[in-house]
């Protein structure tokens, strides 16, 4: 048994689906609070599968987590649960502190107590894998080398600061209590089941709806993109062979300016689902007011995980983005279902105040 937290969100759900697609893997207890970003429909294909036990709850609920640990006795925990959207962290930082900092702390406390009850191989083989982000390292200048695991923490948004705090707590629980932790810091993910408030799915969904494609500022901010299934394979590899107490940066060596990403999405849609009027989707691009404190560049040096654990991404950006655009074209019901009233309120809050 493993315990996955946040397994109804974008990356967590991809991880659970991939994990259970391998016949040899253990069952999963999936603890998720089902925030706006959590979507049980993503896990619909697991209905009736006894290897998936979904629990609706909060990582910060110590009593619930203690009960789950005592009952299921997992040999590992993979912690995806978090508030994850930078723009939301600018509007409402409190929720980020609550889940990412206090929630992770409460989770660690419950796990420490449980781990203390184990002995022998169960104790030494236990793992707590904390899923984190490259955003904790701050923003790079144009010519600076990519982030290694030694890069100093310089988080700039309430989101990245809250993730940095959680990383520090995880580190401290290893250093102080010996808890066998692993931390992964990954670059921007994209792929199936990505909530359409993040750049790539938002552009696909807005393009198809004939809406503006809102590019913040000059669109020259750089992100390093990784197909979500490659992130999942990296997590499986770190869980299997990572050295406890170590940090592994995960990335696909795919730095791209946002504007290039938007043009790539538009060109794929021109090919796969041309506009009825024959015009290019790129005509819908609109430059809007920049994000406050917008980090200019992220780039991951994934050399350590490649050298030490032999992990490499399977997809290039070109293959991954084509699969992603095709997935959204094939799953418009999923998109329609996540665009609830709450989603529309967010779009109004985030974009209503930006000047085109
Ligand atoms: P997401 O926002 O899509 O999903 C987060 C999930 O966590 C949701 O299902 C939500 O309901 C759940 N959740 C939130 N608060 C919770 C709580 N208190 N208790 C239990 N469940 C809770 O996020 P994502 O993009 O899938 O990211 C997953 C993890 O990976 C996060 O920790 C994020 O920081 C990290 N990460 C994301 C990216 C990326 O590009 N999306 C890149 C690197 C790292
Ligand atoms: P996002 O997907 O929110 O990820 P992050 O901020 O965690 O990197 O945004 C990716 C980049 O795209 C980021 O530089 C902000 C930019 N962006 C836009 O230009 N327009 C948008 O509507 C959104 C959501 C993001």
Description of the structure:
The protein has 13 helices and 12 strands. Helix 1 (10-21) crosses helix 8 (228-241), helix 7 (199-208) runs parallel beside helix 9 (258-272) and helix 9 crosses helix 11. The model has no long low-confidence stretch (mean pLDDT 97). The termini are far apart. The chain is globular. It is α/β, with parallel strands linked by helices and 356 residues long. 44% of the residues lie in helices and 15% in strands. It has a domain at 2-195 and 225-253 and 293-315: Rossmann fold. Nicotinamide-adenine-dinucleotide binds at residues 5-6, 8-12, 31-35, 37-38, 58-60, 80-84, 99, 103, 131-133, 163, 186, 188-189, 195.
List the strand order in the largest sheet. Answer: 3-2-1-4-5-6-10
- H and E string: EHEEHEHHHEHEEHEEHEEHEHHHH
CATH topology of the domain at 2-195 and 225-253 and 293-315: Rossmann fold
Percent range of helical residues: 40-55%
Number of distinct helices: 13
CATH architecture tag of the domain at 2-195 and 225-253 and 293-315: 3-Layer(aba) Sandwich
Class per helix and strand makeup: alpha/beta
Note the main sheet.
7 strands, parallel
Taking all residues together, what is the mean pLDDT?
A: 97
Corresponding CATH superfamily of the domain at 2-195 and 225-253 and 293-315:
NAD(P)-binding Rossmann-like Domain
The beta-strand count equals 12
CATH class of the domain at 2-195 and 225-253 and 293-315: Alpha Beta
The shape, in one word, is: globular
Give a summary of the structure in a few sentences.
The protein contains 13 helices and twelve strands.
């Amino acid at each position: 048994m493993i315990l996955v937290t946040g397994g109804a969100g974008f990356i967590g759900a991809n991880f659970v689906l991939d994990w259970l697609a391998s016949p040899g893997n253990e069952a999963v207890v999936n603890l998720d609070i089902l925030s706006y970003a959590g979507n049980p429909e993503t896990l619909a294909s697991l209905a009736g599968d006894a290897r998936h036990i979904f629990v609706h709850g909060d990582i910060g609920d110590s009593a619930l987590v203690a009960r789950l640990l005592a009952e299921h006795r997992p040999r590992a925990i993979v912690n995806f649960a978090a508030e994850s959207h930078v723009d939301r962290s600018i509007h409402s930082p409190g929720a980020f502190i609550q889940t990412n900092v206090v929630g992770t702390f409460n989770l660690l406390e419950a796990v420490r107590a449980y781990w203390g009850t184990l002995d022998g191989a169960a104790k030494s083989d236990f793992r707590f894998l904390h899923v984190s982000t490259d955003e904790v390292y701050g923003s790079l200048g144009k010519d600076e080398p990519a982030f290694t695991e030694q890069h100093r923490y310089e988080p700039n948004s309430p989101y990245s600061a809250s993730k940095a705090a959680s990383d520090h707590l995880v580190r401290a629980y290893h250093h102080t209590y010996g808890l066998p932790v692993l931390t992964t810091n990954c670059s921007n993910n994209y792929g199936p089941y990505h909530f359409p408030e993040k750049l790539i799915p938002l552009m696909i969904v807005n393009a198809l709806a004939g809406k503006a494609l809102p590019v913040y500022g000059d669109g020259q901010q750089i992100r390093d993109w990784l197909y979500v299934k490659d992130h999942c394979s990296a997590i499986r590899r770190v869980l299997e062979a990572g050295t406890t107490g170590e940090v592994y940066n995960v990335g696909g060596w795919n730095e791209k300016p946002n504007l290039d990403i938007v043009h790539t999405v538009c060109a794929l849609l021109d090919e796969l689902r041309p506009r009825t009027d024959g015009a290019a989707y790129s005509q819908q691009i609109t430059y809007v007011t920049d994000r406050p404190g917008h980090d200019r560049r992220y780039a991951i040096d994934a050399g350590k995980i490649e050298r030490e654990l032999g992990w490499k991404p399977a997809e290039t950006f070109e293959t991954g983005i084509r699969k992603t655009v095709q997935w959204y074209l094939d799953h418009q019901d999923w998109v329609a279902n996540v665009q609830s009233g709450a989603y529309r309120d967010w779009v109004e809050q985030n974009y209503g105040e930006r000047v085109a």
